[in-house]
């Protein structure tokens, strides 16, 4: 079993960051971005309650279905598109190897 | 003028517990919070969520923790200024005077900033001239429904608050006409409210425009809102004349006015000395999620510790010549005011 996967985060200036993401630390994308000091606030701590970690899914990675909590939050957020996701709700597992995500505007 | 020993900015868990620790040292506290009820994020963001890392509680709901803290500090009779934001700070005769956005003045020799995530403010949609039309037809909170009597109103949002106000304003025949704009076709509010809004739209009592967002606001010669541009996902731009535009997208925290209080900040947090959680301004302390220092962890239990140490330092500052030793509640009990 691999203990890291490659995750690409495109920042708000359009710059891609290829990150090594640990699969064994119970982390999510919001936390990964913070650990690499990318400009993601994660104000609510990962409870799908603030949308400050909104990202757009730009690869064809299959993600689990969005929870009610995530959809409810995205309903109140701005700059939401069909491929919007909350970074805090994307768990880092082997299945997201190669995922490409773009940070939504603040 | 409210006079107290320690003025606490923020009535979240750290602010509340600080009242207890201050009370043990016979110091009175008064708390200011921008929210209408105590509890901070625990009340506003996640009252029903479980917390597992409060020592001695294998699990506690956030709302219950706040209720318990309120009970614990009751004996020390804290004062509260709720629903007001601490705005300005001045120094006079060795004390601080903090004035809220509503003009309430507070005077204390020690300030404890326990502001958590900051001030909860309405989430504002990204519309270019939005701030110019605030209070000129754009309101984020409905304070008095009568204000909208016989007016044309556009509400934007898909949550309970957008649905509930739509129903209230129309059922009570307050507004002249009402347009509800929502980004998606379905709503995620309470099923009853969703059904009622759908029925109202069907009956032609309101205009419901889904798959749409308000993207621009036009004003009349007086600078007041005159119309809004609603961008539909497939049908292009729609324009609706209106007297008011009310975006209802919930609340989001910002550091708020304390950013201008002359405190050393780092990435939106207040820098403190971990000896006593004092800031660069003598007499002002910062505890809990609002502060930062090497090794900082944003945990409620760390905030409790920070508040405890900060009040010891505050006591020494207030009574430099008074002997003080740490007292155990088990030995001495708790005597209130």
If classified by CATH, what would the architecture of chain A be?
A: Roll
Oligomeric status of the shown chains? heterodimer
CATH homologous superfamily assignment of chain A: Beta-grasp domain
Strand order of the largest sheet of chain B: 6-3-2-10-22
Radius of gyration of chain A, CA atoms, in whole angstroms:
12 Å
H-E order of chain A: EEHEHEE
From the coordinates shown, what is the CATH architecture of the largest domain in chain B?
3-Layer(bba) Sandwich
Mean pLDDT of chain A: 94
State the domain count of chain A: 1
Tell me, what is the CATH class of chain A?
Alpha Beta
N→C terminal distance of chain B: 21 Å
What is the fold-level CATH name, i.e. the topology of chain A? Ubiquitin-like (UB roll)
Q: Low-confidence parts of chain B, pLDDT < 50 over ≥5 residues? A: none
Tally of individual helices of chain A? 2
The description of the largest β-sheet of chain B is:
5 strands, parallel
* Number of E-state strands of chain A: 5
Strand content of chain A: 15-25%
Q: Spans of chain A with pLDDT under 50 lasting ≥5 residues?
A: none
Features:
heterodimer; A: 106 residues; alpha+beta; Ubiquitin-like (UB roll); five-stranded mixed β-sheet; globular; B: 337 residues; alpha/beta; FAD/NAD(P)-binding domain; five-stranded parallel β-sheet; 7 helices; 22% helix; elongated
Task: List strands and helices in order, with pairings.
The complex is a heterodimer of chains A (106) and B (337).
Chain A: E1 4-10, E2 16-22, H1 29-35, E3 54-57, H2 68-76, E4 84-86, E5 99-103
Parallel strand pairs in A: 1-5
Antiparallel strand pairs in A: 1-2, 3-4, 3-5
Chain B: E1 2-3, E2 6-9, H1 13-24, E3 29-33, H2 41-44, E4 50-51, E5 60-61, H3 62-73, E6 79-82, E7 86-92, E8 95-100, E9 105-108, E10 110-113, E11 119-122, E12 152-156, H4 160-171, E13 177-181, H5 191-202, E14 207-209, E15 212-219, E16 225-232, E17 236-241, E18 244-247, E19 251-254, E20 265-266, E21 269-271, E22 284-286, E23 291-292, H6 300-318, H7 329-332
Parallel strand pairs in B: 1-9, 2-3, 2-10, 3-6, 10-22, 12-13, 12-18, 13-14, 21-23
Antiparallel strand pairs in B: 4-5, 7-8, 8-9, 11-19, 15-16, 16-17, 20-21
């Amino acid at each position: 079993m691999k203990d890291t996967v490659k995750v690409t985060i495109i920042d708000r200036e359009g710059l891609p960051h290829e990150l090594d993401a640990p699969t064994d630390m119970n982390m999510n994308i919001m936390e990964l971005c913070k650990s690499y000091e990318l400009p993601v606030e994660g104000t609510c701590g990962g409870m799908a309650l603030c949308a400050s970690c909104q990202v757009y899914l730009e690869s064809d990675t299959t993600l689990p279905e969005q929870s009610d909590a995530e959809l409810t939050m995205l309903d109140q957020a701005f700059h939401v598109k069909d491929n919007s996701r909350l970074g805090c709700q994307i768990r880092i597992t082997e299945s997201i190897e190669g995922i490409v995500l773009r940070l939504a505007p603040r | 003028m409210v006079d107290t020993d320690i003025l606490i900015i923020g009535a979240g868990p750290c602010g509340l517990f600080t009242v207890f620790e201050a009370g043990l040292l016979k110091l009175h506290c008064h708390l200011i919070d921008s929210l209408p009820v105590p509890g901070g994020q625990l009340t506003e963001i996640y009252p029903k969520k479980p917390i597992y890392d409060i020592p001695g509680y294998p699990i506690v709901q956030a709302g219950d923790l706040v209720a318990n803290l309120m009970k614990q500090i009751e004996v020390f009779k804290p004062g509260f200024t709720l629903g007001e934001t601490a705005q300005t700070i001045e120094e006079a005769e060795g004390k601080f005077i903090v004035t809220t956005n509503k003009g309430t003045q507070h005077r204390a020799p020690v300030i404890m900033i326990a502001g958590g995530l900051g001030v909860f403010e309405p989430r504002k949609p990204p519309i270019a001239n939005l701030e110019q039309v605030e209070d000129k037809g754009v309101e984020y909170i409905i304070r008095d429904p009568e204000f909208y009597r016989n007016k044309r109103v556009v509400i934007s949002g898909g949550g309970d608050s957008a649905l509930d106000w739509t129903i209230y304003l129309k059922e009570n025949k307050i507004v002249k006409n009402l347009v509800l704009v929502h980004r998606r076709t379905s709503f995620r509010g309470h099923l009853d409210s969703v059904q009622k809004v759908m029925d109202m739209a069907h009956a032609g009592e309101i205009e419901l425009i889904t798959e749409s967002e308000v993207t621009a606001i036009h004003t009349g010669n007086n600078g007041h809102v005159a119309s809004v541009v609603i961008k539909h996902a497939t049908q292009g731009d729609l324009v609706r004349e209106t007297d008011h535009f009310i975006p209802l997208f919930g609340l989001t925290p910002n550091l708020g006015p304390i950013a201008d209080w002359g405190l050393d900040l780092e990435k939106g947090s207040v820098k403190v000395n971990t000896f006593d959680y004092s800031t660069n301004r003598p007499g002002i302390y910062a505890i809990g999620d609002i502060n930062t220092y090497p090794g900082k962890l944003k945990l409620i239990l760390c905030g409790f510790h920070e508040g405890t140490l900060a009040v010891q330092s505050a006591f020494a500052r207030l009574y430099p010549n008074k002997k003080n030793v740490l007292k155990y509640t088990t030995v001495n009990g708790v005597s209130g005011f």
